[in-house]
UniProtKB/TrEMBL annotation:
<feature type="compositionally biased region" description="Basic and acidic residues">
    <location>
        <begin position="601"/>
        <end position="622"/>
    </location>
</feature>
<dbReference type="GO" id="GO:0005634">
    <property type="term" value="C:nucleus"/>
</dbReference>
<comment type="similarity">
    <text>Belongs to the Clp1 family. NOL9/GRC3 subfamily.</text>
</comment>
<feature type="region of interest" description="Disordered">
    <location>
        <begin position="1"/>
        <end position="36"/>
    </location>
</feature>
<keyword id="KW-0547">Nucleotide-binding</keyword>
<feature type="region of interest" description="Disordered">
    <location>
        <begin position="601"/>
        <end position="630"/>
    </location>
</feature>
<dbReference type="GO" id="GO:0051731">
    <property type="term" value="F:polynucleotide 5'-hydroxyl-kinase activity"/>
</dbReference>
<dbReference type="GO" id="GO:0005524">
    <property type="term" value="F:ATP binding"/>
</dbReference>
<protein>
    <recommendedName>
        <fullName>Polynucleotide 5'-hydroxyl-kinase GRC3</fullName>
    </recommendedName>
</protein>
<dbReference type="InterPro" id="IPR032319">
    <property type="entry name" value="CLP1_P"/>
</dbReference>
<feature type="domain" description="Clp1 P-loop">
    <location>
        <begin position="241"/>
        <end position="439"/>
    </location>
</feature>
<keyword id="KW-0808">Transferase</keyword>
<dbReference type="InterPro" id="IPR045116">
    <property type="entry name" value="Clp1/Grc3"/>
</dbReference>
<keyword id="KW-0067">ATP-binding</keyword>
<dbReference type="GO" id="GO:0000448">
    <property type="term" value="P:cleavage in ITS2 between 5.8S rRNA and LSU-rRNA of tricistronic rRNA transcript (SSU-rRNA, 5.8S rRNA, LSU-rRNA)"/>
</dbReference>
<keyword id="KW-0418">Kinase</keyword>
<dbReference type="Pfam" id="PF16575">
    <property type="entry name" value="CLP1_P"/>
</dbReference>
Length: 630
């Protein structure tokens, strides 16, 4: 300590730290955190401050000791500092204690239990309770941080084995583990906190930075607005540029709204958030190619492929969805618009029921091609209270679509800058979502789980396609002009959307079975039979219609056609859709199969399934292959 009691300089503190390290070389090494505390204590005795400025200036040198965050060092992903306590409970569980403002970053799959205090995580405020939250944090996406909001927060992290880590390898390595790290006993890795930007480290792990969003998340989930004498729950329309953070913002809003309503509402209230998702590329809950209306009952702590489903079971129940496929704004037709209006009408019906739930509407780029009259009707029916545009440009085309109506209704407009969290190519992310969807199943005990068996080796479901009591009433090929005689080749081996429709005799809007070529006045579609007796809907002169009305049909999921048995007049499918939904003859309904048009980047093709089989073959040949490559 200086004789005059003046504050130690940064150089003096560094020298004293080095002296302390060298003097203890013969004794067991201590952690950097304990050394930092000793130097800070010395500074206090010298009249120095223990402020954050002091802690920032102290850069402890590496010491030879075991560190719970060595995973990050080995991965050479980012630099970190850490001073928190980590206690190993068992081979598969940890306990972490945080002080206010401290953060913790993890990679992998785990269950989070907040035992003491409160934390901020993925937009949600989580308080100590008995609730257990499932977290999916792959390396392909920005990793969410757990930040303590109280003076002390205690967390318990447990490994989870729901099968998603064991999905066959399809070209994305190190999905759940840091680079060059073999899979450990735990299904997650503690990486540390205080990430430092390193532009030279191209493979560095990305941290999900939500500091700039805290104010808007608080505003959008704040007290209900009052319109005259009636309270209005949030109805938030989200638009913006692609890869701008729209998906992350959507999950953060859902999480914040869900946790707020769970705390404030009584036990008998109807809790949840309604998601009206019009994004067909990477939908949040439904499989690719769908627009959907979903009742979200649980927070969403992971990217879309970790919770994709077509089930109408809680907690995230798909109330209705329509298949639009992969299309451009130039392909927009009346039948696309009809299906948008159908979901909005269903949401209006739900709005009049109990609960008065918050609503989040995802408005993708292709909706900008709607005519102003159509946009005006959609706006009136949706009645948003807020518009969030993930594009800060003053003349953003994504906001211009809605600005006039928002200003006329005094709707709040929030413009945010683009936040680039994930850099996955769309085709690769599409493969991940398709693989996850086809491998997912419902478990009464654990909820959603996944099976590691390659999908092409799974069990088949057979449907009849000929006769009065057939399961399949028709086949629709989107896009292109596939000749009638090529229907068999276009259908076999393709991924198809499975639509549930009411039987023809009950609903005359479905085209009748005729080969005379008499068109239906409403749709101008004809139902022909190929040489294999496949029932094929063939479009007439109209390019804006669809043979099945939006009101009397709905999509129940995706399937893969593996075989067409001409002799038995049956089609074999592989699908996660429950048999109770496919076997519909007893309830007066039939199924239609919709084949997506060929896409340049290979989406809606079963290439990922073939990769699975090749990967499984390599693992059988080389039993030492690490399952972490899944």
């Amino acid at each position: 300590m200086p004789a005059n009691g003046e504050r130690l300089s940064a150089v003096a503190r560094q020298r004293r730290l080095r002296e302390a390290l060298s003097s203890t070389s013969s004794t067991p090494a201590r952690s950097p955190a304990s050394l930092v505390k000793e130097v800070e204590h010395e500074a206090v005795k010298a009249g120095a401050s223990t402020s954050s400025e002091l802690r920032d200036e102290i850069k402890p040198l590496p010491v030879a000791t075991s560190n719970q965050f060595t995973t990050l060092v080995d991965a050479a992903a980012v630099h970190f500092t850490s001073s928190r306590e980590v206690e190993k409970i068992s081979e598969t569980a940890l306990k972490i204690r945080l002080a206010r403002g401290q953060k913790c970053v993890l990679m992998g799959v785990y269950a989070l239990w907040v035992k003491q205090g409160s934390v901020s995580f993925y937009g949600a405020i989580l308080h100590a309770s008995t609730a257990i939250y499932l977290i999916y944090a792959p390396s392909t996406h920005a990793l969410p941080t757990i930040e303590a909001l109280t003076s002390t927060a205690e967390l318990q992290l447990d490994s989870v084995n729901h099968g998603i880590r064991d999905l066959p390898y399809i070209g994305i390595r190190d999905l759940w583990d840091p680079a060059r790290r073999s899979q450990a006993a735990m299904s997650f890795h503690v990486l540390g906190h205080s990430f430092e930007q390193d532009p030279k480290a191209t493979r560095r792990v990305r941290e999900m930075q939500l500091e700039d969003w805290k104010s808007i998340l608080a505003a959008l989930s704040g007290p209900e607005q009052l319109t005259s004498t009636k309270a209005v729950t949030p109805r938030i329309l989200i638009c913006g540029r692609g890869s701008s953070g729209i998906s992350t913002m959507t999950r953060c809003l859902i999480n914040r709204l869900l946790r707020k309503r769970t705390i404030e509402s009584d036990a008998m209230a109807v809790n949840g958030v309604i998601l009206l998702d019009f994004d067909t590329n990477i939908p949040e809950i439904a499989p690719p190619g769908m627009i959907s209306l979903v009742h979200v009952g649980d927070p969403i702590f992971g990217p879309a492929f970790t919770h994709v489903t077509s089930s109408n079971r809680r907690p995230n129940a798909v109330m209705k969805m329509h298949f639009l496929g992969d299309f451009e704004a130039t392909d927009l037709a009346d039948w696309h618009v009809d299906r948008v209006h159908d979901l909005i009408a269903l949401e209006q019906t739900h709005r009049r029921g109990p609960g008065n739930l918050p609503v989040i509407i995802l408005a993708p780029k292709w909706m900008n091609a709607f005519e102003q009259q159509t946009i005006g009707k959609i706006w009136k029916d949706l009645a948003p209270t807020d518009v969030v545009c993930m594009d800060s440009r003053p003349n953003s085309p994504h906001l211009q679509t809605w600005r006039h109506f928002a200003e006329a209704d005094a709707c709040r407009i929030h413009q945010l800058g683009v936040r680039l969290y994930d850099k996955m190519p769309p085709a690769r992310e599409h493969d991940l979502q398709m693989q996850s969807y086809f491998h997912a199943s419902d478990s009464l005990i654990t909820g959603q789980c996944w099976t590691e068996t390659p999908i092409m080796a799974g069990s088949l479901t057979t449907l009849s396609y000929a006769g009065d009591e057939s399961d399949v009433c028709g086949i629709v090929l989107l896009g292109g002009h596939v000749a009638l005689e090529d229907t068999y080749d276009a259908l076999e081996g393709s991924v198809v959307a499975v639509l549930m429709v009411q039987r023809q005799e009950d609903k005359p809007t479905i085209v009748s079975d005729t080969e005379e070529g008499q068109p239906n006045g409403k749709t101008d579609w004809l139902l022909h039979h190929t040489d294999e007796c496949l029932p094929r809907f063939v479009r007439g002169s109209s390019h804006d219609s669809f043979p099945l009305s939006a009101e009397h049909s709905r999509c129940i999921g995706l399937a893969m056609v593996t075989e067409i048995d001409i002799m038995k007049r049956q089609v074999a499918l592989i699908s996660p859709i429950a048999l109770r939904e496919l076997n519909l003859r007893s309830v007066g309904s039939q199924l239609a199969l919709v084949v997506q048009k060929a896409s340049p980047d290979g989406r809606f093709r079963p290439d990922w399934a073939r990769k699975e089989m090749r990967s499984a073959g390599r693992e059988r040949q080389d039993p030492t292959t690490s399952s972490s490559e899944a």
